Amino acid sequence: MEKKKIRVLIVDDSALMRQLLTDILNADPEIEVVGAAMDAYVAREKIKALNPDVLTLDVEMPRMDGVAFLRNLMRLRPMPVVMCSSLTEAGADVTLDALSLGAIDFVTKPKVDVAHRMDEYAEDLIGKVKVAARAHVRPIVESQSLPITGKLMVDNSGPREISRKPLKTTEQIIAIGASTGGTEAIKDVLVGMPPDCPGIVIAQHIPKAFSGPFAARMNQQTPLRVFEAVDDQQILPGHAYIAPGDMHLVVTRNGAQYRCKLDNSGPVNRHKPSVDVLFRSVAECCGVNAIGLMLTGMGRDGAQGMKEMREAGAATLAQDENTSVVWGMPGAAHQIGAVEALYPLQQISAELMKLVRARSAGRGARAASG
To answer: In Å, how far are 179, 265, 289, 338 from 294, measured between CA atoms?
Structure first.
């Protein structure tokens, strides 16, 4: 029996871009572009007529922009959507809005005059459309969706005081890895963490233009102080540090202090930042003082690093399949025995803090007996 092709509708106001995306996707034997639309109103009618499996959606369109259309779509007819975004700070913020509304992933718009990068772009687009076709779509929950705003004007240049008491070094570290669907999953975890939780380090697969705005958004939306990590930055309680989109984040130890180190070496598992790089550094320098968390994501990045964390005595947990947009990375870690327990996303913050308290109590008991 012939395998059913993934039916794609392309929504973009540029005729050139519609043709380019059509040619790229139709070149793959598992994908069929069933139609194209120049704006949201035409798209609405074509969705009804063609019943596509996946939508590629331009952010900037006349009459109704892509995010406004996505909000309506995810409320009335939830379906997998891959956004096409410009690689700018303003484009990043709008794309993060789209991800908060349930878009599965995004690709940046290709530069049509750069022919030597087109094969790489085609591979990325085709891969994300295939993942979107299998992904778990999140319908909009209006009370939880972020407001559609312009550029976030947040001072994210350095740590701010969270109390009048001097901040000491963090005794435990929570390391988080994520990819597809991860921006919203990370938000859900950080929202549930108390402001005195252990320091958190995060590797999310995201472009450089997006990592700063993402950190600023998390800083505004969660109880923690969230930053795009900088080199040699001390890791403090109640703070979270997100890897820049073009650097690996590594945790090092200097006496009693854990610090961020940025590493500009090549991609690992095709990613930079790589979750494996972060988790391996945490396994090496933090050991039993660490907790590892794998959230939704495509691929296998981080699975081996999480296994090394578990072997070093760290606690490890992962998001379950039912609540993951894509159960690639958590599933891979679970498959090789790197994960101690799986939890639905809404329970993860509470489980993290249970582990923190249990490990603190155990350390206190050992100190008292000694």
So the answer is: 9, 23, 17, 10
pLDDT in tens, 77-126: 999 999 998 766 667 888 999 999 999 999 988 776 555 578 888 999 99
Range in 19-33, 97-111, 129-143 the model is least confident about: 129-143
Torsion of CA 211, 326, 224, 216, to 10 degrees: 20
Alpha carbon 220 to its chain's center: 17
Element (H, E) at 28: none
Q: What is the mean pLDDT of residues 171-180?
A: 96
Residue 342 CA to residue 111 CA, distance in Å, equals 41
The one catalytic residue among 179, 211, 274, 281: 179
**3-class secondary structure, 101:** coil
Rounded-to-5 percentages of helix, strand, coil across the chain: 40, 20, 40
Active-site annotation holder among 12, 53, 58, 205: 205
DSSP state of 61: -
Reply yes or no on whether 232 is catalytic: no
**Does the annotation count 179 as an active-site position?**
yes
Q: Sketch out the chain's domains with CATH numbers.
A: 6-140 (3.40.50.2300), 173-369 (3.40.50.180)
Alpha carbon distance 31, 23 (integer Å): 11
In percent, the amount of the chain with pLDDT more than 70 equals: 86
